[in-house]
Design goal:
single chain, about 500 residues, mainly beta, 18-stranded antiparallel beta barrel, two-stranded antiparallel sheet, 7 helices, 25 strands, about 40% strand, globular
Length: about 500
């Protein structure tokens, strides 16, 4: 994997700077997520849309359709996606600068892009020539928690072969229909470097037995985890299959597992056992992988000009009868409206990461943990899935106003029950090798958590954007990091500011 990293860095540096920008809509743009979901729920887009990044190849042809219905074309969502598509379809390389500052590294993240550290400066370039695309992103971070002052997150090299995209790099991902978190994969943690393959367009299968699936998509990746963890240099494998048998329903099947690494078996047999779920000690007694698997579903219900949605995600931490077991749960309802010359997105979401708390016996100290893989389901000290961490429950009410002038006002309010079984002996020291872990609460804590954000076009019109945000809790929160390292508890308020400029 080290050889791959060097080769990838060289390829990005020497790749000729011509053609256009990213072939997908990246994770982090809340307006894009709202717009795509709203139009998909209305039947304007046929493709599955709960796997991010989302390929432009699935969206762009619909935007080019001159016969698209008026209820699709006459929306802010349609106009916003058309503008973004045209910006990325420009025949030149796309450059951007980004500055971010936070008074404290955010403890919790949602779908929106927010500063990861107290100070960041990033330079990005994206380009595409025919079937090949590349992106280089270099970020300098001031006093990072994980020690990585220079980061190349969201750099990539990708090429299209037929209807498949093969890529290498480290890009943010978000799997599932939720707005604030995911039970299996989100961008709460930094992206892991590796390789992947996914469909470019989710066209229905021509094979008769599979036609009922409707439009479908598949993404598979294999990435490298960090050296400074309990099992150094272990790898993360993931796959997600989504399909839409009807306009109003989308189903996603997801699977990830940690495998290999220093001192662990690394051969085709152990990989095969992990792939089919036959590895809970039955073969060698060594548990060759740490697995998660499950499903999510989203149902849409247009109500006149408005659209309501219902979604649920169930992710298992174990296997029984070759099926996921010991579930974490997430469910929510959302509503997209178009009122007072703007658009709105409302949602109520419940995430419960205490295994078995909804449909079976409660099992603490299991979610995102493993007796052998003691750093857990984490990368660089943050959970790869839920921003709320294991053994937690969060009730979140969110609302975002999208103004016609491009401004955006968002508010979320959450009631949190963190480590609510109060498993104070949950984590041993050897389980925490690596950077300071953020979301490990050693005692039961309840708190109210609020986020307010406002984004507007500034200093360059649509090319420049300023976002102000604040996070507030009614109590100070103590984590493993603040307890053992002598750092003060997390402050009740965290202010953040981001400015981005995209060069024409």
């Amino acid at each position: 994997m080290k050889t791959f990293s060097k080769a990838f860095s060289l390829a990005v540096l020497v790749f000729p700077l011509f053609a256009q920008a990213t072939p997908w809509i990246p994770v982090g743009d809340m307006r894009a997520k709202h717009s795509v979901q709203q139009l998909a729920d209305k039947g304007c887009f046929a493709a599955p849309v709960t796997t991010w990044p989302l390929m432009w190849a699935d969206i762009s042809p619909e935007l080019d359709n001159p016969d698209a219905p008026a209820h699709c074309r006459n929306t802010l969502a349609w106009r916003y996606l058309s503008f973004e598509r045209d910006f990325h379809r420009n025949s030149d390389a796309r450059f951007s600068l980004k500055l971010g500052h936070a008074s404290q590294e955010p403890l919790f993240r949602d779908f929106r892009n927010a500063p990861r550290e107290r100070g960041e400066f990033a330079v990005n370039v994206d380009l595409q020539q025919g079937p090949v695309a590349a992106g280089a992103s270099a970020t300098y971070v001031h006093h990072p928690r994980d020690g990585d002052e220079w980061r190349f997150d969201n750099s990539y090299l990708a090429g299209q072969v037929g209807n498949w995209v093969i890529g290498a790099g480290q890009i943010d991902r978000w799997w599932g229909p939720a707005w604030h978190s995911s039970a299996i994969l989100s961008h709460n943690a930094r992206p892991t470097p590796g390789v992947w393959v996914n469909r470019s367009r989710s066209t229905p299968s021509s094979w008769a037995p599979a036609r009922w699936l409707g439009p479908w998509n598949l993404v598979v990746f294999a990435t490298q985890l960090e050296t400074n963890r309990h099992i150094p240099n272990s790898q993360l494998f993931g796959a997600r299959f989504t399909f839409k048998p009807a306009t109003w329903v989308e189903v996603g099947l997801s699977r990830t597992f940690q495998w290999a690494g220093k001192g662990r078996e690394k051969n085709l047999e152990t990989f095969g056992n992990a792939l089919i779920g036959r590895d809970n000690g039955q073969t060698s007694g060594l548990d060759p992988s740490n697995q998660l698997a499950g499903a999510d579903v989203r149902l849409a219900a247009p109500i006149g000009e408005q659209v309501a949605g219902f979604y649920m995600q169930m992710i298992g931490e174990d296997e029984a009868g070759h099926m996921p077991a010991k579930y974490m749960q997430l469910a929510g309802v959302d509503l997209a409206t178009a009122l007072v010359q703007g658009e709105q997105r409302f949602y109520f979401e419940v995430a419960d990461n205490l295994v078995g708390s909804w449909f079976s016996d409660k099992v603490p100290r299991v979610a995102y943990e493993h007796s052998n893989w003691r750093s857990g389901y984490r990368y660089k000290g943050r959970n790869l899935a839920s921003t709320w961490e294991g053994d937690s429950r969060a009730y979140t009410l969110g609302a975002t106003q999208f103004f016609s002038n491009g401004s955006e006002l968002g508010l979320t309010a959450s009631y949190l029950e963190l480590n609510y079984p109060n498993t104070s002996a949950k984590f041993s020291d050897d389980r925490l090798n690596g950077p300071s872990h953020l979301g490990l609460f050693l005692e039961a804590q309840k708190a109210h958590f609020f986020t307010l954000s406002y984004g507007m076009n500034l200093w360059g019109g649509k090319a420049g954007r300023l976002t102000l945000a604040g996070q507030f809790t009614d109590k100070t929160l103590r984590t493993k990091r603040t307890t053992n390292n002598g750092i003060k508890p997390w402050p009740k308020f965290n202010g953040m500011v981001t400015w981005e400029y995209r060069f024409d």
